[in-house]
Amino acid sequence: MLPGRLMLTERSTLTSTKCINQRRTHATLVVALVAFALLMPSLSHAATAQRKFTFTAERNQVSIGSGLSYPAWTYNGTVPGPLMRVQLGDDVAITLINHTTEAHGIYTHAAQLNDESFAAPLGVNQLSYRFTAQFPGVFDYHCTAEPVLDHIADGMYGMMIVDPKNGWPNGKAREVILVQGEIYGTPDAHGAIRPDHSKMVEGQPDFVVFNGRIGRYDIGHPIPIKVGELVRIFFINIGPNLFSDFHVVGALFSTVYRSGNPADSLHDIQTFEVGPGDGAVFEFRVYHSGTYMFMDHAMAHAYKGAMGLFRAVQ
User: Fold this and answer.
1) Residue among 51, 240, 272 nearest 162 (CA)
2) Which residues contact 65 (CB under 8 A, 6 or more apart)?
């Protein structure tokens, strides 16, 4: 073979070998990318936080302030029940253990499941379900046993917050939790209230309260805030019957998130209506020290107890 032809043959062999190696490298890269893509769902699933909440259904004599009390159905012995707080995308598991002789259930508006998931028949003392928190917001939870009206009015309710994945749009704030509810029944001479089903049906409560008590945030127990700081109220109107026209005297809501969802935002709002079983997130600032009343601006509700105070300091 001629020397020139030999050199040409060697170059061709080297070129061919280089192409083969490039194809092998490319093929290896493709396989690696495919494998990573197949692995991604399991990685995402593994990164999903799991949040578990266990409640007990109990009958308790609960104080509502001013020397008054009533025989409440409760979650974990309190009215409202414990706050549930999760993040968007979390896997949420809820268990209810029933220590009473009545049927009880638990339903959070954040869960998109069938009715049967939220109730246990009489004689069954435990129920469990799980769901993915798919939307940010502030949601109520309540009992689903019949009559639902009585079970809510008698105290089986609470709040669930689903925080946005990257936090609330306007950043850090002084957080306040408020649940508005109604109490039906006239106190006797000893301050004991007997729940009145007829008043519940007629939607005529004797008391309208924040976080289960009359005067919880009165002049002696105001909620402290600071002048100029952002205040964020997570608000639920559990009802079970009345609409709430929520208002802070001396302030405008710079942002209101309907149902607590940042995708549904309104700005510079004076008063905002929240229906029974719904919620909202309210944000505002005050610019002077002193007291600021918050209230249901339906005045009859305020006079029945739906009012409280913030105290702002520098």
Assistant:
1) 51
2) 213, 214, 215, 216
Residue 255 belongs to some domain of the structure: yes
Q: What are phi and psi of 262, to 5 degrees?
A: -60, -20
Q: What is the pTM of this model?
A: 0.85
Domain range for 308: 174-313
Largest CA distance in the chain: 123
- Which segments of the chain have a pLDDT < 50? 1-15, 17-20, 27, 29-46
Decide if 41 is inside a domain: no
> What is the reported pLDDT for 24?
53
The alpha carbon of residue 16 and the mean position of all alpha carbons in its chain are separated, in whole angstroms, by 64
Domain count across the chain: 2
Cα–Cα distance, 258 to 255 (Å, whole number): 10
Burial class (CB in 10 A: 0-12, 13-18, 19+), 222: middle
| Kind of pairing between the strands at 307-313 and 290-296 | antiparallel
Q: Domain ends where: 163, 187, 215? A: 163
